[in-house]
Amino acid sequence: MAIEFPTYNGVEVAALPPPGYEVDFDNRKQQKWLEHILIFCLMSPLALMALLQRFYTKIILSKGLQVDDFFMLLGWVTAILTQALMLTSISKRLFCSHSFEMPLTDYESYALYSYVTAPIYMMCNGFTKLSLLLFYLQISPQTWFRRAVWVSITVVSLSSLIIVCFMFFGCSPLHKAFRPKTEGRCVNAGIFYMATAASNIVTDVILFVLPIPMVYSLRMPRIQKFGAMMVFGIGSITIGTSVVRLALLPVVLKSPDPSWDGCPADVWTFVEANLFIICGSMPTLRKFFKHLMPRLMGSSGQSSSYRNPASPGPSNSGNMISRLRHKRKSYAQFASDGEENEMQDFSGGDTTKKQRSVTVTTADQSQVPGDNQSDEGAILQTKSFTLQYN
């Protein structure tokens, strides 16, 4: 037996309008539709450029695409799909319109768009965060850090999977979710929207906090350490967007007009979906700009050591290997993707012209394929040259 709905001026509607409201089915009021369009037009190209920059850097300047890049691509696809579905619904005057100004057939269309869009957006959230966590596995061989990353991967995977499944299978029968006249039961959709926003905040905080101890312990110039912290800090912007969405969603929980009251939170969905891609592609920005503007960006990731040829011997070689291992642990987190060893400039205090023979021993990792974590993976190369200075 089908559930009965009220009628207004002979049209079956999902809910009756408030007293005194003049309903116009052909010209429904909409709110914040322009904000959705502007954010999509401004931020989606930025997200695409960030993704292309990431792929260019990985394919041309580094070792090629890896698993984390595949997950970021899936995140971008689901982000675009989420926004495209919502914009299509807005163009049909479904999203951001009053429920009581829709014929019941249109309200069913709105409910169908919501049913499909919400879990796709949650997939976007999960894919992009898994991409960043998989990238974290590549930047440090420290045992505690890798264990923490794997725990975070498990938390993000399970929370995303559970929420997506409940969103898809939260009604019995399934089509009850978008056909309100069908008899059946549904889990409160607002609770899952709240759960999505809350899980976003928790996982965003984890992604921001996780690399801080590792970066803080690095032995590198302060400016480079600050730059590394900024890369991860900018990614924490999504914490703010998740908090805003969470603050806006309680209005929807008990609202008789969800298509209208949920619209402000949907604006932040657009912002957040694009920020997932932009922030997730930031770790490759330094190498990309260093390729475009090498003089401006300068050098980092130094792993060269200098020794005087007057004191060669096995003990010195052992000390050299030890120093190389130590420096590799300090810098490899941000230079293990194929950056060349760079030499540091030195200047003496003597103003007279002098010459001195110097032997440089460098560690070359490029000849040891697949060895990204072993300290013994470095091959020593010795070069001699004459250093002239004033």
From TrEMBL:
| Residue stretches spanning the membrane | 33-52, 73-90, 110-137, 149-170, 190-214, 226-247, 267-285
Q: Name one Pfam family in it.
A: Fung_rhodopsin
- State the GO CC annotations: membrane
> Which InterPro entries is this protein grouped with?
Rhodopsin_dom_fungi, SAT4-like
Q: Where is the composition biased (Polar residues)?
A: 299-320, 357-372, 381-390
- Protein topology in the membrane: Multi-pass membrane protein
**Quick one: where's region Disordered?**
299-321, 335-390
Subcellular location as annotated: Membrane
Task: Please report the stretch or stretches of sequence annotated as the Rhodopsin domain.
Answer: 54-290
> Which keywords describe this protein according to UniProt?
Membrane, Transmembrane, Transmembrane helix
The similarity annotation says:
Belongs to the SAT4 family.
What is this protein identified as?
Rhodopsin domain-containing protein
Identify the species of origin. Clonostachys rhizophaga
